[in-house]
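User: Hi! I'm working on a homework problem where we have to compare a predicted structure to a textbook description. Could you give me the structure for the chain below?
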Amino acid sequence: MEPKLDEKDLAILALLQRNCRLTARQIARKVNSPITTVFAKMKRMEKLGVIKEYKAILDSKKLGNATTAFILASVSYRTRNNQELISQRDIAKEIMKFPEVQEVHIITGDWDLLIKLKAEDVDAVGKFIIDRLRFIKGIEKTLTCMVFETCKETTEIQISARKKSDKSYEEIVKKLKR
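Assistant: Happy to help. Predicted structure tokens:
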């Protein structure tokens, strides 16, 4: 069930996902609400799980992880001796444990998993696949797509209007910029 969010909630979310270091006081000024209201709304959205957590977004290149790869993986649902069934979710959980893995998605189509990896260079990606990923029980085959250039990468989620009477995300953001 989707939580009910009003225009002020959406405005608060728009501001927070652009800069989570804003204080409740700064947000209150921008959305024209009392600080206590803004604080209560933020706590409510945290409790509802709409706001999952607050994080800093780091520059991977400046931290020595300039190479991004997307890896498609195919899963064999039985072990090599054909006795034990393996869950796709369990395999995903194993892959999630590797620190260089940023994302793991269970997908449809010819492949079962999509993995996003950040590493030092192409050699590190290769070593990860050969020495770690392919040793996970249930991984049958992989296909690696190296990223040449990232044109867009964001953590922002589009905040869409819930009803026709609600203002769109763009209208809310425009109003906040005034």
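For your comparison, note the following. The chain has a mean pLDDT of 90. The longest strand covers residues 67-75. Good luck with the assignment!
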